[in-house]
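Researcher: Please generate the 3D structure of the following complex. Treat every line as part of one assembly.
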Amino acid sequence: MTKEEAKIKIEKLTKEINEHNYSYYVLDKPAISDRDFDLLLEELIKLEKEFPEFLDTNSPSLRVGGEIIKEFKQVKHKYQMLSLGNTYSFEEIKEFDDRVKKNIGDDFEYVCELKYDGLSIGLTYENGILKQAVTRGDGETGDDVTVNVKTIKSIPVRLSGKDFPDKFEIRGEIIMPHKSFEMLNREREEAGEQLFANPRNAASGSMKMLDSKEVSKRKLDCFLYYLLGEDLPFNSHYENLRKAKTWGFKISEYMVKCHDINGIYEYIKTWEKEKENLNFDIDGAVIKINSYKQQEILGYTSKSPRWAIAYKFKAERVSTKLLSVDFQVGRTGAITPVANLEPVHLAGTVVKRATLHNADQVERLDLHYNDYVFVEKGGEIIPKIISVDETKRDKTIAKKIKYISNCPECGTLLIRKEGEAIHYCPNETGCPPQIKGKLEHFISRKAMNIESLGEGKIELLFDNKLVKTPADLYDLTYEKLFGLEKTYFLEEQQKERIVKFKEKTVENILKGIKDSKKIPFERVLFAIGIRYVGETVAKKLALHYRNIDTFKNADLDDLNNVEEVGSKIAESIVSYFRNNKNIELIEKLKSHGIKFEVSESSASFISNKLSGKSFVVSGIFKKFSRDQIKKMIEENGGKNVSSISAKTDFLLAGENMGPEKMKKAAKLNIPLITEDDFLKML
Ligand code: IVH
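Model: Done. Output below.
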């Protein structure tokens, strides 16, 4: 392919991919299959690699993130980022409506919108290109989070059409859809990390991350609701937003115009009910005056516009009877008190249980058995108990709920670290739910991937005393497994399920276990379940220490120097290796042939060692093919470029390299290195 052809093809693919992203992420109507989309993207990536001179900083191929920054630049907002006045009742809306009419008369339009529950963002576009994305901060100055925002696929990096102003800002809300939120918390649970309380916290936590690749995995979304600029196409809010939709922005379908306060009431009443059917959180409605001229007349207070108001939904609240409190023990030994309630309808679902979080919360509520409690579903998906209805308490028999001091599963005395709210059972290797949880984690897809053992089978093995530690899995035989059986009662579905190990099941289990011996070190490190060591951290640790022996001897200082490892993780690692049972486990796993060092083939080379360095690879090599070498450069953070320039860092020279390249490198003083020099660099 000639350069000219490549340029045209790259442009065509970019346009096509951007259009598909728009159909998928903005319109929610995919036009092609995921596989076909991936093929287009792969083709683009391949061409951009071959012709790096045509790689655009806004290419859709770069939207998976990758840039790691040290800290966010502080940027002053061109237009101050105001907030909105809040109202909680129809009377307050009426007062707002009266004020409006007093100032601008009766001839105006209201625009009613959803109030998205996320974090606000201001996006600046110049000549149709996304230039900067800034968080609210204190309203005057915010964080420049452009690299993170570029990973949100529903935000266009390049606008469609031609009729957008040369320069403008558009503001909106970054949100985390329910599905992304559930997936994220599931993964965090698996890694023993603290869960996010609600999608809003998860969205704003995600935007604060310094590694945009991690942000891209969070699957965020963004609704836009406010345009600012000197030459906007219309003199009114609604019309401008509809126009912005044609430029590729995600503008809500649920924005409506109305003429009087009754329209506002209707809108609020509708969405108070309908919000249950949205796949993201809203916490109210926003009412704005449509005409900019009238907005100007109404003006601003120091904090918020007088031409707009927010109505916050009341969190739905019901009263029900507290039946009992369970103390659940999680995989990491964390104790969660959970209230069992008399079933009650709340915000579209039947609630039977509510979390009580921790001992402080139980104390604060002053809970007694048989109390009537108020349950609320606010921003949180899991309902919580807000308060006790003391008027309904029968004081003659009321008995206060006592927090437990020993583990309900194994009897061990619970501990509570200073400054932490949660109690833990420290019996990591002897407490049944912790043992089962560890085993479940060990076999999970992202760890040892022994899928044939999923769905309750671990429980069966544990109950039959066949496995207690992950190492025991490797002692299982056909004879031990065949014929095992157990009946479970599935509470959710109110039915029984029988798990029985027949011939095929046993064969699959044994095969899965055998295959897991090929799982690379980094995943084994994740699988053994050191608290706070998630997938990414495990990878960094594996690359840094290369084998378990070096790793287990690392001290706090040393661990703290590893990328992504902070003192909390470092302490958890040191304490893990102080426990002899863990050392024993590792030794046993080792004796079964589990990988405890990085294999020196392919994947072992992944690092950041060549970060920021560019290479021209030329000629024929002895140990690796040219393509393999190029792949290694990329896997270690370096960049391949096709021709030598003053910016090139190294010319990696094999045999039969053309004399022209050699001459050019010498002229520009670019170091020439051999294949062995290169391997040493790694
Ligand atoms: S308009 C000057 N519209 O709510 C007016 N804000 O409490 C600027 N929000 O800071 C805001 N949905 O983060 C507007 N449809 C919507 C909104 C919305 C959510 C957020 C936004 C704002 C906060 C005000």
